[in-house]
Amino acid sequence: MNEIGYRIKYIRKQSNLNQSEFAKKIGISQGNLSEIEMGNSNPSAETLISIKRNYMVNLNWLLMGDGFEEGGLYADTNEKVLLEGYRDLKESDKFELIEIMRLKKRL
């Protein structure tokens, strides 16, 4: 398994998704994801961008293994709780939460 494949598999496992679920969310086939995770192929730029957007990972970490402490997904436990909770919200609730955060920053 190549390193980028390992990191993508790590993101999937941390998100508690099987290959089919994760692949669908990032817009590729389960077979393609399997090949990437095993190191038999490399992800396209579109796939990397989709992973970055959907799982809020640092692209530098995803590509090179640099940028975050061990784990790479979250800066700390609070960030993990916030991001995972955010992902489970309806779109209208996500918008509301963003507005609350903007208000808190202004205060």
TrEMBL record:
Highest taxon above the source species: Bacteria
Keyword Membrane among record annotations: no
HTH cro/C1-type domain segment(s): 8-62
Entry keyword set: DNA-binding
SUPFAM superfamilies registered for this protein in UniProt: lambda repressor-like DNA-binding domains
Descriptive protein name: Helix-turn-helix domain-containing protein
A Pfam family matched in the record: HTH_19
Listed InterPro entries: Cro/C1-type_HTH, Lambda_DNA-bd_dom_sf, TransReg_Diox_bact_type
Source species of the chain: Paenibacillus algorifonticola
Phylogenetic classification of the source organism: Bacteria, Bacillati, Bacillota, Bacilli, Bacillales
PROSITE patterns: HTH_CROC1
UniProt cross-references to PANTHER family, sorted A to Z: HTH-TYPE TRANSCRIPTIONAL REGULATOR, METHYLPHOSPHONATE SYNTHASE
GO MF term set: DNA binding; DNA-binding transcription factor activity
GO cellular-component term (any): cytosol
Record has Ribosomal protein as a keyword: no
UniProt-listed SMART domains: HTH_XRE (SM00530)
